[in-house]
Amino acid sequence: MFIPIGQDNFIDRDRVVAISPADSSPSKRLRRDVAEKGQLIDATGGRKTRSMIIMDTGHVVLCSLQPETLRARLDQKERGERERPEFSRVEEPSET
Fold it and tell me: What are the distances in angstroms from CA 87 to CA 21, 79, 82, 83, 84?
């Protein structure tokens, strides 16, 4: 199952190992090391990097969404809920 990570990018939920905020020191070191290996994927679309998604393949995906937003999307898909809530149609009262 694929989840949206912003800017028309999607990742396979089953391959996600961890989600990390991009501004921590360990995340910055990981980003540098992975970039040297050629396994860094920038999916920010030119926006500020707010989170890093670590994949089981060793790749790291840079994302412009907050880690909390990504976690909520992962949880939502695990529960099998719809991407967006379905709203019921409200009918106008008829005049008699």
Answer: 33, 19, 12, 13, 9
Residue 25 token pair:
């020191």
Question: What pTM did the predictor assign?
Answer: 0.75
* Of the candidates 53, 68, 63, 69, the residue with the CA atom closest to the CA atom of residue 14: 53
* Residue-by-residue pLDDT tens, the chain, 96 positions: 888 998 889 999 999 999 999 999 999 999 999 999 999 999 999 999 999 999 999 999 999 999 999 999 888 866 665 545 455 555 556 665
What are the boundaries of each domain within the chain?
A: 2-78
